[in-house]
User: Fold this.
Amino acid sequence: MRAALRRALLALAVCCGGMAAWSGSAGGQGAAPPGPAPVPDGRLVAFGRTLFLDGCATCHGSDLRGRPGLGPSLRGAGAAAADFYLSTGRMPLANPTDEPVRTQPAYSRPQIDALVAFVGSFGGPGIPAVDPARGNLARGMAAFTEHCAGCHQVVARGGIVTGAAVPALQEATPRQLAEAVRIGPYLMPNFGPGEIDQQQLDDIARYNGYAKHPDNRGGWAIGNIGPIPEGMIAWLLAAVVLAGVARVIGERAP
Assistant:
């Protein structure tokens, strides 16, 4: 009798264990909780700290808390901000009062990865995912027109706003574009997933890739600088032609 009871309990335990495993694999209530977030490579972070102390601490402080009049705190700035500013050459700045503009990066890609890992270890937004191949060109143009064209022009050639020059986006990679959208560099506002969701981000990246080399179907593109500057140039040329015609007509016959 006892042996039969033990066999029954063993069978019940095996059955329950199998059901729990199935529930976990199917996403049921018995699913195991997600594992911890991956820990940054300690050696990469240590290398980044060395680079930071040598090239960034003067303005941002060795503890990343910033220095008044020189540089803001980077605690909580995140990997996205560090990668954007370093990969576009906007940091480090020769003068803390200068506007950070795109230029040749001061660090190699491995060095940037190390600095990003170090700054990211103090918290903040990670590098966002983006895939232009998943985007839709027509939706991307609509989203870009709504959220971006007011400053960058509909053809992403940049412009001027109060207190800053708006950069053109011809050299921006999809990753840099996504980082800028999420962190809002310099005077640009940041757009969270509630304002620009992942699909819209992919759509915008797709459109920006198209805007770098748009399909010009006839006419004089004038560098694709946008409809308003193109219209002004057209009026200027027309005024010159009209002035020439008026002069010819107004000349006295001999």
Notes: Residues 1-37 have pLDDT under 50 and may be disordered. The longest strand covers residues 159-161. The CA atoms of residues 51 and 84 lie 17 Å apart.
